[in-house]
Sequence to fold (276 residues):
Amino acid sequence: MILKGARSGEMRREDLQLHVFNCLALITAFPVCVLNRIRGNTHDFRVVTRCNQAAKRLQQLRPIEKDDDKTESVTDDSGVTVQYGTTNEMEHFFEILSLELEQEFRTSFSRSGPPSMIPQRVTHNIRNHLDDLDDFYRLGEGRPPIIRENIDMMAVAGRDCGIYAYRENLNPIAFLWTTDIVTRIVCLSIPIQTCTTLSWPMITRVVFEIVGISIVTATTLTILDEMWGIWDPYAKGINAYSWTLGIAREIDSMLNDVYDSDWDKDGGLPLRKHGM
Fold:
């Protein structure tokens, strides 16, 4: 909406677009950073720089002047040929970014350093971009407080989720391991003991007893596995990709809707210049 409100002849319109794309990239990176902070990953790499590079790449894919879904090749000032990407990359740009950040965290997993401060750094940079947008592009009196409140809520949610990063202090380790060991011993000993005392001539009764013991044992072991998942939800209890990729997919859909509604693909004419 901010981009749509900018005038076509404004000299700083490209800078405005870069600020907006930077904010979207940082919002995409935030849940990935929080998730790996919860997992205890202390790897600290330059996420903000990576998001800035992604914003510049998206600016090449979606220039201000036109929005063509075909692949183009141009030569920049340095003489290097730049491939402008495909429609697939444009439509799923932030999903790809989220997966790339997740891969970086997974391949460089570490627990040896101090706790990672990447989530705090990301929210700090989002606030800085908002302040720049407010200072230079006059967002109005009502919009910035609402955006700041949403950023604060996002930061608080990330901080509340971060409590699971201190599993050693929260989880009842002795209770969990004792329950786990005792339950597994019982689940293994009961079938063995039952097999030695079965009355094999009564084959029908034996079959029912074996089936009943198998069902009870399998159910108990499943509950035991879920018990561990409850105390480590972000590593075992939930599908983390449904969270991180879900946010990235929403941002992609929002951006695609804005560009699809603003441009006539056949004639290349803007349908709404200043829609708010």
User: Anything to note?
Assistant: Residues 203-230 form the longest helix (28 residues).
